[in-house]
Write a sequence for this structure.
C-alpha cells in the first residue's frame, strides 16, 4: 500500500463523527433553528439541513486536512452550509439556481452592523408613520390608542342552489381570547349560520345573535366540503370559489399597544379601514402558474399572485418598498431593509392560517406547501415588537440579532463576490473574496479544474419541495424573474420540469460531473439525503455512478425533530444518510465505514440504501432496479402515504 501515490488514497472523514452526539445536537437545533442559527432569519427557505450536522462534517474533514479550505456548495439554498464554513474560517463557493435564494444568501452573509440596521429601520419607520397610522391606527375597547395587529377575515359565498349567503368558517371555535396555556376558556365562536359571538371553549352554547345551538368542537368544512344550512345542499369549497365568487369579510381584529393585546369584533371604523375600496395598490405580481403546489390555489379561485393579498396589505407593502429607497445607508444596509420588507409577503393575508389555540399565524408556504384556509389572518405589515409574526419590525430585530451573532463568530465583515450569473467566465476565486455567490444552474460551476477541497452540499430531495413555485410570491415582490426555473433539480410532473425520474437523474449526473471536475484529486463530495421514494434513491445513486464517483464512507444521523408539526404522526423521514464520495480513480484504503444504523423501520430502510451506496462505483441498472424493489417492500413504506400531512390545511 505504501507504493500507492497519496493522491490515490482516501479515508472517510466520517470516521471522526460521533453519530449519537451529532444527532442529538441536530434534534436540539431543529426545535428552534432561529435561536441556534440566527442568520437564517434573513430569508425564507423551505428545506434547511442543520448546522449541527454540516458543522460536524467540516470539523471532521479538517482533522485530516487542516488549514483554510475552499468549500463548494452547488445547491446552496438556505445557506446553512456556507454559513457553517465561513464561521470555521474557510472560503466558500455557493451556487443556487433560484434568484431569491442567491440574493438572500448574499444578504445573509453580508448583513450590516446591528446599529446600522437599527438606524435604517428607524428612518423608514418615521417616513412610513402617516401611512401606518392610516392603515392600522385604532383604539382599544376602553378608548386607549392602539394599532391593529391582525384583521381576520372569513371567506363567504352564495349557495349555488338557493343563493343563501354562507360564511365558510372551518370550525365553530374561531379563536381563544388568550393562549391555551393561560387556562382562560374565553373564546370567539361561529354558529352554524356564520355569526361570530363571545363564548367559551367547551360546551353547547347559544348564538347571541340568532340563538342557534353551537358546539365549539364542530367542524364546518370537513374534507373541504360545506352543507348549506338552508337547503341542505353539499358543495366543495372549490366549487364555491368558481369565478372568484368568494368575498372575504372582516370578523375579528387583534389590537395591540406595547405588551397589551386585545382580540375583539371589529368596529365600523376598523371594517372601513379593511375595505378594499379604500386602498389603491398598483402592483402586478403576475399570473399563478399551474404546478404541483399552486394547484390548491387555482382550485380555490386565486388566479394572480395579487389575489392572495388584501388590497391594504398590497398597498402598504408597495409604499414601504418605495419609501425604503429614500432611506440613507450603505448598499448592504439597504439590501437588508428590502429583504425585511419583501419577507413580510410570505404572510399573505388570504393564505395565512390562524392557530386558534396559540394565537399566531402561519406563513403562506408553511410545511413546504401553500396554505389553504377559509379563515385568514391579514397582518399589520409593519408590526410591533410584541405581537405579530413575520412583520418588518420583527424581521429587522432578528436581522440585528443575526448581525451580532456573525460578529461574535468573527465573520462580521465577509468579502462577498456576487451574486454573479452562471454565464460568467470560469475563474479562480478572487484573492480578496471570502465568498463567491453564483446564481444559475450548477451544471456550470464558475471555478477552474481541481480547485476545491470539499464539496459539501444538500441536493434537492426529488419532488418533496417545489422551491420554484414556493418562491414565486417573494420573487414577484423582489422584481426578480418569474419564469419557470429551467434546470431545477426537482421532479414536478405538473409543470413538465424534470417530469420524470430519468430527467432528474440526468440533471444530477451533469451537476455531479461538474462537481467532479472542480474537486482536487484528493477532494471529497459529502452530502446528506433523505427520502421515502425508492426511485429518488435509484436516481441519486445512478447519477453518482455516472459522474465517476465511488463511496468512501456513509453514516445515518438524526436530522429532524420528530415532534415538529410537519413530522408528527406520519412516517416522515427523521434520519439523514450522510454519503462521502471520492473520485473513481482513488484507492479507498479502508472499506466504507460500518455505520451504526438505528434498529428502526427507517433505519433498516437506510441500511438497504447504504449497502447499495457502498458499491456505487460498480452499480448496474439491474442493481438499481433491485434496490427499488427492496425499498418498496420495506416495512418503512408499508401502508404509507408518501407525501406527509402538513400544517397548511385548515
Amino acid at each position: 500500500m505504501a507504493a500507492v501515490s497519496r493522491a490515490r488514497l482516501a479515508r472517510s472523514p466520517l470516521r471522526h463523527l460521533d453519530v449519537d452526539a451529532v444527532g442529538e445536537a441536530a434534534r436540539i437545533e431543529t426545535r428552534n433553528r432561529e435561536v441556534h442559527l440566527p442568520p437564517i432569519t434573513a430569508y425564507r427557505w423551505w428545506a434547511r439541513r442543520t448546522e449541527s450536522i454540516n458543522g460536524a462534517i467540516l470539523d471532521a474533514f479538517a482533522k485530516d486536512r487542516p488549514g483554510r479550505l475552499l468549500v463548494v456548495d452547488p445547491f446552496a439554498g438556505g445557506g446553512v452550509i456556507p454559513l457553517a464554513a465561513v464561521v470555521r474560517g474557510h472560503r466558500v463557493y455557493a451556487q443556487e439556481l433560484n434568484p431569491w435564494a442567491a440574493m438572500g444568501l448574499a444578504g445573509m452573509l453580508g448583513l450590516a452592523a446591528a446599529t446600522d440596521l437599527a438606524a435604517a429601520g428607524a428612518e423608514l419607520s418615521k417616513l412610513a408613520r402617516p401611512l401606518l397610522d392610516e392603515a392600522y391606527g385604532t383604539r382599544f375597547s376602553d378608548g386607549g390608542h392602539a394599532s391593529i395587529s391582525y384583521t381576520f377575515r372569513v371567506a363567504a359565498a352564495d349557495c349555488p342552489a338557493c343563493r343563501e349567503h354562507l360564511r365558510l368558517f372551518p370550525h365553530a371555535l374561531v379563536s381563544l381570547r388568550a393562549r391555551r396555556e393561560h387556562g382562560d376558556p374565553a373564546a370567539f365562536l361561529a354558529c352554524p349560520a356564520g355569526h361570530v359571538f363571545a363564548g367559551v371553549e367547551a360546551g353547547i352554547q347559544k348564538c347571541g345573535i340568532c340563538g342557534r345551538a353551537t358546539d365549539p368542537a364542530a367542524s364546518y368544512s370537513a374534507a373541504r366540503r360545506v352543507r348549506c344550512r338552508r337547503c341542505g345542499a353539499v358543495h366543495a369549497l372549490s366549487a364555491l370559489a368558481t369565478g372568484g365568487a368568494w368575498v372575504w369579510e372582516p370578523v375579528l381584529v387583534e389590537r395591540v399597544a406595547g405588551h397589551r393585546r386585545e382580540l375583539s369584533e371589529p368596529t365600523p371604523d376598523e371594517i372601513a379601514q379593511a375595505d378594499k375600496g379604500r386602498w389603491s395598490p398598483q402592483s402586478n405580481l403576475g399570473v399563478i402558474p399551474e404546478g404541483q403546489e399552486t394547484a390548491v390555489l387555482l382550485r380555490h379561485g386565486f388566479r394572480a399572485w395579487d389575489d392572495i393579498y388584501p388590497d391594504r396589505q398590497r398597498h402598504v407593502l408597495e409604499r414601504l418598498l418605495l419609501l425604503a429607497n429614500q432611506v440613507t445607508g450603505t448598499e448592504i444596509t439597504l439590501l437588508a431593509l428590502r429583504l425585511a420588507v419583501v419577507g413580510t409577503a410570505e404572510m399573505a393575508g388570504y393564505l395565512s392560517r390562524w392557530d386558534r389555540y396559540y394565537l399566531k399565524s402561519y406563513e403562506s408556504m408553511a410545511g413546504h406547501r401553500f396554505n389553504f384556509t377559509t379563515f385568514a389572518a391579514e397582518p399589520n405589515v409593519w408590526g410591533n415588537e410584541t405581537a405579530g409574526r413575520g412583520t418588518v419590525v420583527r424581521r429587522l430585530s432578528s436581522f440585528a440579532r443575526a448581525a451580532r451573532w456573525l460578529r461574535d463568530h468573527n465573520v462580521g465583515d465577509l468579502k462577498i463576490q456576487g451574486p454573479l450569473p452562471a454565464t460568467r467566465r470560469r475563474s479562480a476565486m478572487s484573492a480578496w473574496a471570502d465568498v463567491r455567490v453564483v446564481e444559475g444552474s450548477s451544471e456550470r460551476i464558475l471555478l477552474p479544474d481541481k480547485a476545491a477541497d470539499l464539496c459539501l452540499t444538500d441536493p434537492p430531495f426529488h419532488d418533496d419541495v417545489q422551491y420554484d413555485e414556493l418562491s414565486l410570491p417573494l420573487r414577484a415582490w423582489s422584481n426578480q424573474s418569474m419564469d419557470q426555473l429551467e434546470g431545477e433539480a426537482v421532479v414536478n410532473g405538473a409543470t413538465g420540469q424534470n417530469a420524470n425520474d430519468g430527467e432528474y437523474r440526468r440533471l444530477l449526473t451533469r451537476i455531479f460531473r461538474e462537481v467532479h471536475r472542480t474537486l482536487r484529486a484528493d477532494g471529497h463530495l459529502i452530502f446528506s439525503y433523505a427520502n421515502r421514494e425508492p426511485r429518488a434513491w435509484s436516481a441519486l445513486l445512478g447519477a453518482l455512478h455516472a459522474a465517476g464517483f465511488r463511496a468512501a464512507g456513509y453514516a445515518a444521523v438524526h436530522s429532524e425533530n420528530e415532534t415538529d408539526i410537519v413530522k408528527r404522526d406520519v412516517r416522515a423521514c427523521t434520519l439523514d444518510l450522510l454519503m462521502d464520495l471520492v473520485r473513481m480513480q482513488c484507492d479507498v484504503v479502508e472499506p466504507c465505514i460500518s455505520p451504526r444504523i438505528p434498529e428502526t423501520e427507517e433505519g433498516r430502510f437506510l441500511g438497504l440504501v447504504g449497502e447499495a451506496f457502498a458499491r456505487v462505483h460498480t452499480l448496474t441498472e439491474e442493481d438499481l432496479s433491485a434496490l427499488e424493489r427492496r425499498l418498496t417492500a420495506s416495512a418503512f413504506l408499508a401502508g404509507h402515504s408518501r407525501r406527509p400531512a402538513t400544517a397548511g390545511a385548515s
